[in-house]
Known about the structure:
Number of helices: 12
Bound molecules: fe (ii) ion
Strand content: 5-15%
Order of helices and strands: EEEEHEHHHHHHHHHHHEEEE
Amino acid sequence: MxxxxxxxxxxxELPKGAILNTDIYNSSGAxxxxxxxxxxxxxxxxxxxxxxxxxxxxxxxxENTVAxxxxxxxxxxxxxxxxxxKKYAVExxxxxxxxxxxxxxxxxxxxxxxxxxxxxxxxxxxxxxxLSKLKVSDEYTYKHSVDVGTMAAIVAKAMGESEQFVNxxxxxxxxxxxxxxEIPLHILNKPAKLSFTEFELMKTHPVxxxxxxxxxDDISEDMRKAILNHxxxxxxxxxxxxxxxxxxxxxxxxxxIVDVYDALVTKRPYKEAKSPAEAIEMMFAMSNKFNLxxxxxxxxxxxxxxxxxxxxxxxxxxxxxxxxxxxYPLRPVIKITSIKTIVxxxxxxxxxxxxxxx
Length: 358
Ligand SMILES: [Fe+2]
């Protein structure tokens, strides 16, 4: 950060370290010091003989940048839904999910929602995810469906996939858990660990979703496979078929990552919500289950500490997030509240061992 200062005074008022923007002349018009000179002890010494007034403009370049009050968090331009879209999405999904027997109406309705999700993404200033700006409903099914469809489409677009692929994955994401409509509510919302049998029943939801849509002309086989395989893991530990690596299609690999993230950061009857940072940390620990290229793209678009949010550092300091570091989502640029100092956590040597803890 730089600051510019004008001086009309005496030589000893020239601040050390500043750069002269203007030549300095004595009262007779003779050059005392040329512009671009950096004021240091030698320069001050050589000028000290002159006792008259001088006029100069100087620029400071501050190493440990001190923020002035004008330094505000950058605008959060991540994808967000307006209230009318949220209302429309929830009302449509409520109607569609209440009658899944009418597959054509279901798929047509969800394709329409998917295309609106994609147009919001296309109009967004930035291809990034801040889940608090997506929230369409408190009701889990709708919130989770829209979150997963939207995040999957954002990741696919960030990966450079075609418009068709991005549209398809939005729809597949909106429908990925449709098979859960056939699972009894008392199991879906059980506030305790599921029994073996209950869990086996729960694990049938990808197959149920696939079969529900198997005769649909509107949903491609790739999209159906994404629904069938969204709980498969790259290391072969998933379900229902324990597929591994490239046996799992790209669409399912993307949906699987955003599905895990959304499930972790959402409060459910049987578990508390993790913070975005905790969720990412847990996902790093299980990253052998994910396609790493896709996981990296996901990390580059997810906003873990949104601009303007307050964070606590491991050294006890409190700070405001000013802007993101795309390559280091856990280490944004922050302003320390108590000393009004801006710190780029991705490069500042003094903060190498400091992390955001909350
Ligand atoms: Fe699922």
